[in-house]
Amino acid sequence: MSIEDQSPKARARALLAQMSLDEKCGQVRQYFCFGTAAEAVGPLAAEARKMEIALATGTVGSLLFVSKASQTNALQRQHLEASRLKIPLLFGFDVIHGFRTIFPTPIAIAASFDPALVEASQAVAAREARAVGIHWTFAPMVDICRDARWGRIVEGPGEDPFLGAVMAAAQVRGFQGTTLDDQHVLAGPKHFAGYGASLGGRDYDEVNLSDYELHNVYLPPFKAAIDAGARNLMTAYMPLNGVPATGNRHLLTTILREHWGFDGFVVSDANAAINLVAHGFSASPVEAAVSALEAGLDLEMTTGTSAYEHLAQAVVDGLIDEALLDQAVLRILEAKLELGLFEAPFVDEEAAEAVLATPAHRDLARTAAERSAVLLRNEDALLPLTPAIRRVAVLGPLADAPRDCLGPWVFEQDLSETVTIRAGIAAAAPAGVTVDYAPGVAMPMRQHPWPFGRMHERDDRSDWADFDEAAGLARAVELARQADVAVLVLGERYDMSGEIASCSTLDLAGRQMELLDAVAATGTPVVLLLMSGRPLDLRRAGTLADAILQLWHGGTRAGEAAGRLLWGAVSPGGKLPFSWPRHVGQVPLIYGHTRSHSPEGQTRRYWDETSTPLYPFGFGLSYGAFAVTDLTVIPTAGAGAEVSVTVTNTGIHAGDEVVQLYVGQASGSSARPVRELKGFQRIHLAPGARQRVTFQLDATALSHWNDARKDWVVDRVARTVWVGSDSQAGLSARIPG
Predict the structure, then answer these.
(1) Catalytic residue among 114, 147, 160, 269
(2) 584 found inside a domain
């Protein structure tokens, strides 16, 4: 049997046997690529020189942030010419919610409650990325977040572990497909684990979680991603219960490999290995390298000072067993072999351009934006707009901002392809309708603190310094007075959420609230379109706007989707993936809380504000109207049940409903949440149509981690099931114990 006919594991072992210590250490290091040393300036030049030396000596295994087919080919060729064993480079990239075609942000697409759509969207992202020579994405981000102040809420699935697990698995299937062919990339779920529970919602701050909460809330999406076949996993920056995640053997070896059977490779987040020194966990870079490798970290992502550059000396000095290094190298070699890089290390540059320009990809992006939108308010059925509307005022600083449509974590956008909200509304308007526009007020800017800045992102409107807000506000009010309806596009800029974008308030930034007040005072009906990566304070806005539609950052075709939603070509059907707080003082706020002392006072925990959300988890209106009736429960083996309901569209418009199943138990071996999402189905119904929807509950769905027993248990107790349109569904039945 030739070596090419052997399994990836056998071929990897054969290669490993031929490798020198330096070559092995090169495989476990990943460099940022900031261009050549001649092109780069300042601190980037030093990074570029370091990368070029590694390429010339064949002592690098992976590069990231290379995004052009010509560049990946050139770097791969340079590396292979220098590599003694011709082991190809692995190229990684942050393909978070699209590559050239940008889809709604992860929090937005989670609101679609449509895993098939999520899978299809990430399959497009994978196809575009692989076409230019990218082999691996640092996604999906599956961190559960229950504090809306945390900037990275925009990258994840929201507050619920069940929804998070479904979305995690769908994204992995989309990225990787059934086989890692030339249309797919390695998925890299992140950040393992508990990152979304950072103290005060402050990025990178410590996390302290009980095993009960870790296993029941924060780990299920990771487990679902691994079960779906994810071949990589990224560590988190912060300390978990006092031990930095990147040096946490309990996480990276005991849970991940011994309990879950993960056999892929683990990568650090940028500089997380060397930062074991900053944590006070390791005394030196050498000790950091030893601690990380012993914990289970295979590959170090680094800029500047590295920990793993000391691994060879650590082996020579006997500080670490070379067998641990061999394990890490084998996992990386296996990934490269599974991807077929040894046989096909280069990409077709002409074909890549055709893939990136595929019209069907843009069509799917529009559909994703439509299905992610959440209708929060619709007084007097103002939406969809009727033929009586002949003049529309589109107002607000985000109405004509293509970069802000895309959201954070977008690097290869073509702003000329992005359809703004203003453009989409105008294009969808019936013949004879006048669409006027004014920004009204300026959008505040924030200075990004990253040392290298957002060198990979381009901004369409970076400077509002010359904008005359007094004149702009007056112009917007005048257009509102002349209009039949005023559509205000307000919310957050693309960089107001994401990494290092935590905030202390959920207020609308700048003078946006002043604009809404002034426009509402004209008496013209107001539609508020929200563009954001988190819930915002809508207590006052909800009294001024007749309709509120959460658009999120909708991507390349956000404007097309907005226009079709407003004019009724499609109906909103998305649901909230988090509980929407009334005020920042309520966070963290979750629907799945446990009962505590005085449960009858659960909604009155504050004397100055109700404890209930403004909008509950799972909430979202439609242009249709839905009745959920005829609940039946048939017990099945193992404490499970078959749960069925009839859903009827009682309205005059076709629409989508997300039918949601919640389960609660009144007693058991642990205090359990009052309700937990355990199933959902999104269905489409014409006016008057009805459909029977059935859910299966099994022992896995009913199990929970019991902290006293340190294991998963299924309590043999009676349970209540609720089925309806959100987490406050009233239709219920009992499953006997």
Answers:
(1) 269
(2) no
